[in-house]
């Protein structure tokens, strides 16, 4: 129990001891390790979950014989749908991301090795057959993938700390590269394990950066930064803890972020980064791995959560955007273990989920939503919504200490108002303790055995 604490600074150690005393002292008092009623409360919680799941519509339906079992893949980190309605699967082949993959300073430990020699991008058609593959000799630890309206494919590689754009006619050589190869950082030219890309129909695009940074960047089509926001600590809606996936709701003028370790989907105006709304639910738990938006029935968010406890189920969930209510849930019969990404067709009739482990992709369908006119628009390359190019107005919440005054100030103000000096101090202590725990866990050096979660 105490083993993993040695790497944590003394101050935090003391705080943690206090916290443990406080909490455990009360919970696990004289009656033994588990207090009286512990198992009853587990049962109550279990019933509550079961009851909540029963109330949701179970849709879309899992397609059990999809894809063809002959298709082999490694850890599947990303899925995207191209403009012909085919699924792009981004996988790591024989490479895996585990505790030895990066140094404490986020440097990839396999520098000098060859990139993955197998095709890392598999293209599957509607019936689950492999119809194309590419992306060999380019990547080390694949992460996010998306396709823009012109058919360009955008990917991120967390080992390389880079973002790549490939045009439809040139799959061997990227047309655009952002970030510095193998060099983590937090600047205009460097990312740290960037996780995802989303491209507006006018060509402007967003990058989620990422595992070690806490920011969303917006670029013009040529790769010039026009806006960025996000901070690492505090309680404002601009705080991110692993912004893990992105989706666009262009009909609403929003970009939405799966803020993984804060267990929320946070949506921001895509023109100026203003916070608009946030979605979370006790049933989904504290970890949200990915999100995809479909403009059906007033807008729906398709979400996959991640493992948090033995008791909370890992599943797909659908949230109605307007009401913010959980309306549907879905999973293959055997459930999900470590879902990592999700994508939906524009009409919401087809949903695909990528799993890191087991190495799988799943297809789900909802025939009632099928809308040819919505699909055709995209497949025939017609812009669904006419997004005009907006000139940058302001940088909302700049990352980092240098020049981050506005963000930090606002958070400080919030804490101050919340409860005076004592409250602020207590909040800071708790935050530090939580942080220490989190970093111990994220570095993979914690004592708890955790499934692969990257
Ligand atoms: C998918 O590809 C396979 C093999 O090329 C082909 O037989 C099948 O008809 C295709 N399915 C669709 C829906 O295009
Ligand atoms: C799609 O449309 C855009 C402009 O609207 C055009 O530049 C692009 O070449 C088109 N792509 C295809 C595959 O037709
Ligand atoms: C973003 O634009 C909206 C609408 O014009 C405005 O209300 C909001 O204040 C803007 N936010 C920033 C940070 O400029
Ligand atoms: C299909 O989508 C279009 C928008 O592109 C919408 O106007 C139409 O009502 C939808 N049809 C159905 C049956 O939902």
TrEMBL record:
Question: How would you classify this enzyme at the top EC level?
Answer: lyase
The entry's Ca(2+)-binding residues are: 79, 341
Q: What are the GO BP annotations of this UniProt entry?
A: peptide metabolic process
Keywords, alphabetical: Calcium, Disulfide bond, Glycoprotein, Lyase, Membrane, Metal-binding, Repeat, Signal, Transmembrane, Transmembrane helix, Zinc
The residues forming the signal peptide are 1-25
- GO CC annotation, single: extracellular region
Q: Which cysteines are joined by disulfide bonds?
A: 192-212, 256-267
The residues the record assigns to binding Cu(2+) are: 244
**Cofactor notes:** Binds one Zn(2+) ion per subunit.
> Where does the source fall among the domains of life?
Eukaryota
The record ties this protein, via SUPFAM superfamilies, to: NHL repeat
Q: Which cofactor names does the annotation list?
A: Zn(2+)
A Pfam family: NHL
NHL repeat spans: 134-169, 191-222
Q: Name one GO molecular function term.
A: metal ion binding
Q: Provide the protein name.
A: peptidylamidoglycolate lyase
Record organism: Chrysodeixis includens
């Amino acid at each position: 129990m105490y083993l993993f604490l040695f790497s944590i600074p003394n101050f935090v150690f003391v705080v943690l001891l206090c916290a443990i005393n406080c909490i455990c002292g009360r919970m696990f008092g004289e009656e033994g390790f588990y207090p009286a009623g512990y198992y009853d409360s587990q049962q109550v919680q279990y019933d509550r979950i079961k009851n909540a799941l029963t109330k949701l519509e179970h849709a879309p339906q899992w397609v059990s014989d999809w894809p063809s079992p002959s298709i082999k893949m490694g850890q599947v980190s990303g899925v995207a749908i191209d403009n012909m309605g085919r699924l792009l699967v981004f996988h790591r082949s024989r490479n895996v991301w585990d505790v030895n993959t990066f140094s404490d300073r986020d440097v990839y430990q396999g520098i000098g090795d060859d990139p993955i020699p197998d095709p890392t991008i598999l293209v599957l058609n509607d019936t689950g057959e492999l119809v194309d593959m590419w992306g060999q000799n380019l990547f080390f630890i694949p992460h996010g993938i998306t396709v823009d309206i012109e058919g360009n494919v955008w990917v991120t590689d967390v080992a390389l700390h880079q973002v790549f754009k490939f045009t439809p006619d040139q799959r061997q050589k990227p047309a655009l590269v952002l970030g510095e190869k193998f060099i983590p950082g937090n600047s205009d030219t460097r990312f740290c394990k960037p996780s995802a890309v989303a491209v507006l129909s006018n060509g402007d695009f967003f990058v989620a950066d990422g595992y070690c940074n806490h920011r969303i960047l917006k670029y013009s089509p040529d790769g010039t930064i026009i806006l960025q926001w996000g901070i690492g600590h505090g309680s404002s809606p601009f705080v991110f803890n692993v912004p893990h996936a992105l989706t666009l709701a262009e009909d609403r003028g929003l970009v939405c972020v799966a803020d993984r370790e804060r267990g929320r989907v946070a949506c921001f105006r895509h023109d100026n980064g203003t916070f608009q709304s946030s979605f979370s639910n006790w049933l989904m738990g504290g970890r949200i791995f990915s999100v995809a938006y479909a403009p059906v029935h007033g807008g729906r968010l398709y979400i996959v959560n991640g493992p948090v406890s033995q008791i909370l189920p890992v599943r797909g969930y659908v949230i109605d955007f307007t009401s913010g209510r959980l309306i549907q849930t879905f999973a293959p019969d055997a459930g999900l273990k470590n879902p990592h990404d999700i994508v939906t067709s524009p009409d919401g009739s087809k949903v695909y989920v990528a799993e890191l482990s087991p190495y799988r992709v799943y297809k789900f369908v909802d025939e009632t939503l099928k809308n040819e006119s919505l699909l055709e628009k995209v497949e025939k390359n017609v812009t669904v919504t006419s997004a005009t190019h907006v000139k940058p107005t302001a940088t909302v919440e700049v990352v980092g200490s240098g020049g981050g005054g506005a963000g930090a100030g606002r958070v400080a103000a919030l804490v101050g108002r919340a409860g005076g000096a004592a409250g602020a101090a207590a909040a800071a202590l708790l935050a530090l303790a939580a942080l220490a725990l989190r970093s111990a866990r994220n570095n993979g050096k914690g004592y708890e055995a955790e499934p692969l979660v990257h």
